[in-house]
Amino acid sequence: MAITTVDHWEYSRWVTVIGRSLRMNPSVNPSAELTAAATFIDAMQLKRPWLNDAIDNNSIAEQSATLLDNPQVVGKNIEVFGRNIMKIQIQDNAELAIIDALIAATGNRQYGAQSGTIASDVVK
Amino acid sequence: MERQARLMSRQKKLLDKWSKTTEGKNYLSRGWTTYDDLPEQLIADLERVKDQETLWSDTERYLGDLATWSSRFGSDRTGGIGRPLNDLTQDEQVKEIKAQLNTMSNDVKRAERHASKMERMNGKDYWQSIFEVSQNMVRVSHESRALESDLDDLIREVRYRNPEKYGSDRNMVATDLTRMAKEVVAMDIGHHHKEGGKWYVDTAFITHIGQKYPGGNVEHMGFGEFSLVTPEGKMEFDRMRGREFEGQVGRSHQIYDNVNGKIVKKAINILERSGKSIEASVKTAKKWDFADYYYAFNQNVWESSGDPKSLAIKFVERFGAEDPELVARVLRQQLGMAELKVKAVKGAQRALGRI
User: Which residues constitute the domain of residue A98?
Assistant: First the structure.
């Protein structure tokens, strides 16, 4: 059963914006955010395996050796999941927890901020 | 078609161009296209023009607008029949031809059945068999038409009498139809009417005469045709020859019997005395129209036993003076039908290799 207690459109919007934010405004402190992002992508690929093709396409297109350290690739892949959440609701509590963890790790990026809440990460 | 996507014109051009390629047609033929399913090169091109935040949703909406009915069925997968099929189904002429073909194919099927029957008869009674075909066709059309109009009459009547209960619900009427119809008909007083030496009665008259005539019983012969069976003889209620008169309840029927009008007189007397039927005083005989002559022709020629040619001549002698133009039209129409049937039978025989 899909989780209906939360607004999946809102969650979709947050995840998509986080992905875009990571892509457009790369973190100056990448280790924290990108680790959370990589965890998110790995976990979500297990929950939504039908998106594997799109994820692989994005990753290969960048031709990068360290894919997960590349904010462009990470951002694009998170956007893919975000768009898919709008079409297919959050499926269970495990998926909700994965998304919540990403949102917590990226601070204000869910609202389109240029960076997370980490003080040293703010770009002037 | 209004396209609301807020794409750059260069992005629109990219999508337009792509949607006309084989790959694009295949994508659109699925009926849905998500941004993430698009080819990576196209996504890269779109993002290179401008990587706006709503690019993905605008692209999906734009492609949804492009995916018309014909494009969805226009791919190689469906044999590219989409647009021609769409055009064809919109064509009025094609609709007519389709209707005609349906009729013709039914004719040919019936003719085929009779042709195989004729084969067993060693080709004897060729013309008789053709008239059998036509008689069957006429009977079937009568049957369906009579049933339809009977049912419609009844439903309309019931609804008219109970407007509050049966406001617009036809199904509800149908469930109570049998009971209601009996009640409604039993409530009415019948009417009889004399015109041109012939008596015409309405439906209510038939209901009452069955109960009032001593030793009489109304029998349903099928297709809305009734007859009154009495110890003296038999009286027929001919629905096809009924002429409308003012005040009638239900249909009008011409009545006649096989004992020189004895039963007719007695029946009318009985119902008049018991107050179950009154004579309709105002004489407003309806002028016959094409359909009336059509039915009369079918009844007098196709459905009668005997030589159709002499029967047709009798028909013209009887009705020709009333309205020569309409009678001639009926004759022409019937002649066309007969020719069609002959053609159908011959065509079927030729197809079967039996001539």
Answer: 8-121
pLDDT beyond 80 at A1: no
* pLDDT band, very low/low/confident/very high, at B133 (cuts 50, 70, 90): low
User: B86 — phi, psi (to 5°)?
Assistant: -60, -45
Chain B residues inside the 8 Å CB shell of A84: 36
Confidence of residue B184 (pLDDT cuts 50, 70, 90): very low
Q: Which of B258, B279, B300 is the last residue of a domain?
A: B279
Residue A65 has pLDDT above 50, yes or no: no
Expressed as residue numbers, the domain containing B240 is: 154-279
Tell if the CB–CB gap between A84 and B56 is shorter than 8 Å: no
Q: Do A79 and B37 touch (CB under 8 A)?
A: no
What DSSP string describes B168-226?
A: S-HHHHHHTHHHHHHHHHHHSPEEEEEETTEEEEEHHHHHHHHHHSTT-EEEEEETTEE
Query: Which is it for strands B190-195 and B198-202: parallel, antiparallel or unpaired?
Result: antiparallel
The model's pLDDT over B262-302, given as tens digits with 9 standing for 90+, comes to 888 888 888 877 767 777 754 445 567 777 777 777 777 77
Here the ipTM equals 0.79
- Which residues in chain A have Cβ-Cβ distances shorter than 8 Å to B34? 83, 87
Mutate to test the interface with B, among A14, A21, A83 (most CBs of B within 10 A): A83
Q: Which of B34, B35, B40 sits opposite A57 (nearest CB)?
A: B40
Q: How far is CA A78 from the centre of its chain?
A: 3
Q: Is residue A43 part of a domain?
A: yes
Domain count, chain A: 1
